[in-house]
Specification:
With 447 residues, the protein is an all-alpha fold. 87% of the residues lie in helices and 0% in strands. The protein has a single domain, classed as MFS general substrate transporter like domains (Growth Hormone, Chain: A). α10 packs parallel to α12. The protein is globular. It is found in: Membrane. Belongs to the unc-93 family. InterPro entries: Ion_channel_UNC-93, MFS_trans_sf, UN933_plant, UNC-93_regulatory.
């Protein structure tokens, strides 16, 4: 009897650590998806405010083109600071960089409560810095989380990266839908551009951003190897300069990143075209300023749905190539339509056409967001910070170009640039994917 009891205790002692270990492993695995949803929802809360404010910037702050110039300054600052962003993220860690990055967005919205040159310009400059580190931090954090999840669950890395990017960009893209519905609800009863209506709107946006910042604090640190990188990069000035060289200059010696850059630049061009030209030259004449919120809500909804679907369908380079082909085709059709056959009409069709265009443009944006992030995560797994820094450098530079050029060129000229951009960037991207696939196939056959 006593022996049996002892055996039972021994057996229990042997099994208990296994049960605790299994529970701990399961908890760690579930934390990966938990962090993806926390990150996604935090970005949704922050960017539903910023995205809607950006859409209204060129129509609300019209005095001396304050809104347009502020956005141009913002994206020039974004471009310049993106050169240093990967080093900052390495030193701080991706989680801390994400939290610090939210402060720039908060300050920019606060400046819109009293929009003058003395408030908007400094806020735009600082937000450029904040945006550079929040986006490099996001790309690094999300890809590292996906890789850890794939490794711990014995899953295909490319599939997990695509799936996690689909979840993030799907939720992120819905910020256009939610934020513009909030704008529509708060501004529709007042006169367009009224001070009281916009004040209430920006206060609501500040509350949303504050919640998003708080939510960021609940992310788990995903440093791993990056912890060693941060310690090394902070020891000496030489190490910091070496880190800067590695993250900015060295990636440009990789032929693959050079072939991705045109598509990255186009993704920025098409976003800025929607914000600066499509809303002003296509939506406003047909639906009025108050209709901008509704059209951009349609844009955001299609963007979100497409991001989720595209992310789920992403499993590797072949799927990325097919999905990007569809997005490029949709955008080319819209630009040709606007160039050759579109003219504002009255009645139902006059309302439907801009909304249909917004939906198709949103589909293309969802494609480029998810697939570019997945592509960089797959091709540049050994230098994620540098790859995502390149993404934001070229994206923000192209966005800044559009904001500064938009007041000085015609819509037809801009559409010609956009059509040429999508054709050239897609052609270069297709050449890259075919070459990489050829290398993979050759390596597999040799093995």
């Amino acid at each position: 009897m006593e022996s049996a009891a002892m055996d039972s205790v021994a057996t229990h002692d042997e099994e208990s650590p296994l049960v605790v270990h299994d529970f701990t492993v399961q908890t760690l695995k579930s934390n990966y998806t938990r962090d993806v949803y926390i990150l996604s929802f935090a970005f949704l809360l922050i960017f539903l405010a910023y995205g809607a404010a950006q859409n209204l910037e060129t129509t609300v702050n019209t005095e001396q083109d304050l809104g347009t110039i502020s956005l141009g300054i913002l994206y020039v600052s974004f471009t310049c600071f993106s050169l240093l962003a990967s080093m900052v993220v390495r030193v701080m860690g991706s989680k801390n960089a994400l939290i610090l990055g939210t402060t720039g967005y908060w300050l920019f919205i606060a400046a819109n409560l009293k929009p003058t040159w003395y408030t908007m310009v400094p806020a735009s400059l600082y937000m450029g810095f904040a945006a550079s580190i929040i986006w490099v931090g996001q790309g690094t954090y999300l890809t590292a989380t996906a890789r850890s999840h794939a490794r711990d669950n014995n899953l295909h890395e490319g599939t997990v990266i695509g799936s996690f990017n689909g979840v993030f960009w799907g939720m992120f893209a819905s910020h256009q839908f939610v934020g513009n519905l909030v704008s529509l609800a708060l501004l529709r009863d007042g006169k367009e551009g009224s001070t009281s209506g916009t004040t209430v709107l920006f206060i609501v946006f500040l509350c949303s951003m504050t919640l998003g910042t708080i939510l960021m604090c609940f992310l788990k640190k995903r440093d791993g190897k990056g912890q060693e990188d941060r310690q090394d990069s902070s020891v000496t000035l030489y190490a910091s300069l070496a880190s800067l060289w590695k993250s900015i200059i060295f990636p440009l010696s990789n032929v693959q990143i050079l072939f991705v850059i045109p598509l990255i630049a186009y993704s920025g061009l098409q976003q800025a075209f929607v914000w600066a030209d499509f809303t002003k030259s296509i939506v406003t004449p047909a639906l009025g300023v108050s209709g901008v919120g509704g059209a951009m809500a349609v844009y955001g909804a299609s963007d979100a749905i497409c991001s989720l679907v595209a992310g789920r369908l992403t499993s590797g380079l072949k799927s990325i190539t097919l999905i990007v082909s569809g997005g490029a085709l949709f955008h080319a059709i819209i630009f040709l339509w606007l160039l050759l056959d579109y003219s504002p009409t009255s009645g139902v069709l006059g309302t439907i056409y801009p909304l249909l265009m917004a939906a198709i443009l949103g589909i293309g944006d969802g494609v480029f967001n998810t697939q570019l992030n997945a592509l960089l995560g797959i091709l540049f797994k050994h230098d994620m910070e540098g790859a995502f820094a390149q993404l934001k450098v070229w994206q923000s530079a192209s966005i800044a170009v559009v904001f500064f050029l938009s007041p000085h060129i015609t819509l037809q000229a801009m559409l010609t640039v956009m059509l040429a951009g999508v054709c050239i960037s897609y052609g270069v991207f297709l050449f890259l994917t075919l070459q990489v696939e050829k290398v993979f196939t050759s390596a597999a056959s040799d093995a």
